[in-house]
Fold this sequence. Notes:
Elements: E1 22-27, H1 33-41, H2 46-49, H3 54-69, E2 77-84, E3 89-94, H4 103-118
Amino acid sequence: MSEAKEIIIDENNSLFHKDGMFYKEFQSDFRQIRYFTFLIVQKAPSEIKEINLLEQQISELIKNAIKHGNKNDPTKKVRAWFSFSTARAHLIIEDQGAGFSKLEEWNEFNKKRTELFVSQNFEEM
Length: 125
């Protein structure tokens, strides 16, 4: 059975450790997303630049931070910490939005949705 992923907010979780990572800070400006993405991707080794469309995924993370987190407010910032190896990309994107509400409810919904998908119970899904 596929395990449902959860959204976690825990600064002590190892996924959020920022030591030794590169750092960039951007204005909430949709016109510059390609440039912001380039600044991050240029640090990636050539072996992973094309894997899983790295540039597109990073661009989507920045877009989501600007649109959903910062609500397109040009006075708000997007912060990015990132590191790469030949086998892995590690990114932490932080916006200045209000954050997630009802996180536990969303995690329960996602767990149930995953169970229904795995069991192919599409009617209940």
